Amino acid sequence: MGHILKLAFVIITVFIAYQISKLYETPPIPKLEDTWWGPRDPSKEDISIQPFIIDISDSVLKDLQHRLANARPLTPPLEGVQHQYGINTKLLNNIIDFWRTKYNWREREKFLNQFPQFKVSVQGLRIHYIHVKPSNPGGLKVLPLLLLHGWPGSVREFYGLIPLLTKPRAGQDFVFEVIVPSLPGYGFSEAAVRPGLGAIEMSVVFKNFMKRLGLEKYYIHGGDWGAIIVQHMAALFPEQIEGVHSSMCSVNSFLANVKLLVGSIYPPLIISKECEKKIYPLSSFFSNLMLEMGYMHLQATKPDTVGVGLNDSPVGLAAYILEKFITWTNSEWKNLEDGGLTKKFTYTDLLDNVMIYWVTGSITTSARLYSETFNKAQMSLGVDGIPVTVPSACARFPNEIAIQPSIILKEKYHNLVHLSDYPDGGHFAAFELPKVMAEDIFTATEKMRSFNITQT
Question: DSSP 3-state assignment of 77?
């Protein structure tokens, strides 16, 4: 009997060791096709780069004014409630009144057109983008930098950041040439006409997009969906990526969740004292996550249904989007009467972003990215398990919905050369704190360049 128990123990031990070893296996890089996502005949597609100017017709603006002026009365909030049930309709009424009487789209159109803009067809999609080069780089090295936004954002998030990145800085021997596209299906970029364009496929589109622009090697930055897409680009196409910077670094793995669970017993095992309260207790962390993720389930399952109402009602669209700028900038702002919106933004800034969704009618196609990404087909590609080996940088802001400790981030980012923690800032950090973000990108890029030099 003793020999049988010993044999059973050995078999179980070997099995457990085998299962643990599988957790550390790197999946193969999947073969990803250059799928044609557009509605036109590939043989007849014009792939030349064309200048673009935002110029919305008067009929669209008149229709908007009519809808705002004739919107149904909003349901009053409950007594003593601010934004705990979603955006407070007292605040929303104030914003809609400002939108209807004081917001001037023609003036904002000039603002949005301040940077050179273009469109180019990539895999059948006419991609809109901003392309700004430094006006007087002198003898400085000019580094291409791709900036990617997310949902419910747009290229508008980067308008404060672009001038800071393209202007030479004291003590730096480089400056950036900045490329800022609208994601497919967002804003002025064309949407796919067939299923399957998830975040992984978008990484292919943007790799080909940069190649179309004549850029073979470049740096990348992203937040929200942009962070996920640049992470995929860095993992799948390391030959093109000089370095990746993200304001939402994340690792989605079994081991990451195990480490989080172990840390709940003794947090110093995985995280510094300064960051401990951002994650623990896990009950509070996951409670807030559940509170803010309801929209995600909706958009991952029924994007077209929710899109109907949002695309038909500018008031509904504003409510849906602006609520995120309250609780995702600072979760405590849900307890403020004004939602804290004017602490970091202006109504004009925020409505610029809402308007980009409204005048392009892109809220439905933007929401589809959730459905196209959170599914079995995407998971089966195993991209989450492929490490990022290019030099990487993560900027962590305390009011981001979810952050992860470095011991977890290093599972994915094998050469994490820069990790910064800031005392202020949330999910829309580039929009909220452009100077802080610019400083972090410059500092991180200097470290990434040094890393690349040591590898040659």
Answer: coil
Beta bridge partners of 129: 118, 181
What's the N-to-C CA distance of the chain in angstroms?
A: 60
Contacts of 344 (CB under 8 A, 6+ apart): 329, 432, 433
Tell me which residue of 233, 279, 254, 266 sits closest to 396, measured CA to CA. 279
Mention every residue, 6+ apart, whose C-beta is less than 8 A from residue 58: none
Residue positions annotated with a catalytic role = 224, 370, 427
> What's the CA dihedral at 58, 63, 65, 68 to 10 degrees?
-160
Rg value, the chain, Cα: 23
Query: Are β-strands 117-122 and 218-222 bridged in parallel, bridged antiparallel, or unpaired?
Result: unpaired
| Residue 50 token pair | 């064309």
Q: What is the pLDDT of residue 72?
A: 97
Mean pLDDT confidence for 209-217: 98
Peptide bond into 152 cis (omega under 30): yes
Give the residue among 197, 39, 62 at the shortest CA–CA distance from 121: 39
170: three-class secondary structure by DSSP: coil
Helix axes 363-373, 303-312, angle to 10 degrees: 160
Provide the mean pLDDT of the chain. Answer: 93
* Residue 18 binned pLDDT confidence (cut-offs 50, 70, 90): very low
